[in-house]
Amino acid sequence: MAEKNELGDRFPPVPWLRAALGCRCPRCGRGQLFSGLLNVRPACEVCRLDLSAQDAGDGPAVFVILFLGLIVVALAAIVEIEYSPPIWVHLMLWTPLIVGGGIAMLRPFKAALIALQYRHRLLGARTQP
Predict the structure, then answer these.
(1) Rounded to an integer, what distance in angstroms lies between the CA atom of residue 16 and that of residue 25?
(2) 3-state secondary structure of 123
(3) Beta bridge partners of 24
(4) CB distance 110 to 104 below 8 Å
(5) What is the pLDDT of residues 40-93, one digit of tens each?
(6) pLDDT higher than threshold 50 for residue 127
(7) CB–CB of 4/10 below 8 Å?
(8) What are phi and psi of 24, to 5 degrees?
(9) Which residues of 38-76 are buried (b: 16+ CB within 10 A; e: fewer)?
(10) CA–CA separation, 101 and 68 (whole Å)
(11) Best CA proximity match to 50, nearest among 58, 40, 64
């Protein structure tokens, strides 16, 4: 069922994964979700959804740490077992991957949590009468 905003505009349901990967508004799928690197806009500029009540908390960071940690530890173990490089090689390989991967993964994970909160009626979504 399509939702309406305060102006009476209808918005078809947006898949949460599409909204998360595009970092878009969970209601209309067109407005930008973030105003900076990780700052959530107070409201969507397209559909005027109030995003000030969003609370992703530490969930996105926990997921990023777990997934990225699993990948880096597995790769570091493989490199260590196969090549036994000095420690500085590990530092040169994994530090940029950890920093870059963490930054790259945090936005979509935060957007996914916000989209799921909206989808499950925890973020300003209203049922239609």
Answers:
(1) 10
(2) coil
(3) 32
(4) no
(5) 999 999 999 888 888 888 999 999 999 999 999 999 999 999 999 999 999 999
(6) no
(7) yes
(8) -110, 170
(9) eebbeebebbbbebeebebeeebbebbeeebeeebeeee
(10) 7
(11) 40
What the block records as the tokens of 100 is 């870059």
**Residue 45 · residue 37 · CB < 8 Å:** no
At position 124, the amino acid (one-letter code) is G
pLDDT of amino acid 119 = 87
End-to-end CA distance of the chain: 11
CA–CA gap between residue 129 and residue 36 (Å, rounded): 36
The tokens for 125 are 């979504």
Type of residue numbered 30: R
pTM to 2 decimals? Answer: 0.82
Three-state SS at 32: strand
